[in-house]
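Bumping with the actual sequence this time:
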Amino acid sequence: MNNNNKLHFLDGLRGWAAFVVLLHHTLFYLLARINPLFADHVFRFITNGRLAVFVFFILSGFVLSVRFIREPEKKSLAAAATSRYFRLAIPVAGASFVAYILMRTGLMYNIPAAAVSLETGGLNTWLASFYDFAPSLHSLLSFSFYTTLLSFDGAVHTYNSNLWTMPYEFAGSMLIYFVLGVFVREKPEPVFQVPLLMVTFVLFCIEPKFACFLFGYFLAKVDHRWRGPISNWKYCHLVFGLSLILPIGLSTAYSFDERDHCIALLALMIVAAALFFKPFRGFLDSPISRFMGRISFPLYLVQIPIICSLSSYLLLALPRYGYSLLATSYIDAVVTVLFTLCCAYAFTPVEIFSIHASKRIAQRLLVSVPPLSNLWR
């Protein structure tokens, strides 16, 4: 997703985080009621979707910041900020349109499938809460281009519940661009970062999700200025190896649920490990991780429509062919994961189009604006 030099490993981390979200929805929310093993503590880390989302937020803060920290340039910053809405909205509209088609053709089976677990764990209210409304083009367009990025409310009709993160992603992106415009200079002065550190602390206390974007910004600053000394530090592997091991161990042993402050710190440790722990970074830069990085955003977007159509259909159909609920859960899990990966790959042209289209739209919107260098003197 990013073209910054030597940052493919961060795309890899984003890809695996999207995969964790898929496992979170498939194993924990969809299938754990008929297969309690999927809710066992041994699966907690690889199904910790909330931790993965916080990793997304930190990565966004880092990737959006690092280019302008390396080469401060206000005009490019304005173009990046202007294109951000379209960069997010176009893939969102594409994924929402897929859900719209599935609804119109009667291929959403999540509501009847929610009752499959009645004998073992009661109604799956999570699964039953989606796509219980009549689709329309007006609601589709409103959801795709307004509701998702500006006023998402999970309590109202949604074409993709995964998109609850988009208002945070969009607002957090604008926060980063504002910070870059105000605090990043060709000759940086450390004193300018003190107020920003205070703001970050306040945000962390009030809303850790937004603080995660600033965590990413500060990691980009550290990576830019002190990568060499940190990498050469004799305790680097020990410290950042623990920075990876501790979140895995803690999130496996304990269920943090909605404790966002703890989750934000664990996500910060994971991203720091990706930056400075060479074995982890090497894995994230491997071919399979790069592939996961290329499909990360599509993988995040397409999974809910697939779970509510194909996966839910399998929950209904497989027991009719004599499969036990336990066998159904394993078959459904494997088919869902493989099919979602394939669909995410098929969806990548939409994301590539959104990257190029958003840049062109931003250029046209800014063509009549006077040079921003005059505004920043």
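The tokens above came from a reply further down the thread. The chain is about 75% helix and 0% strand.
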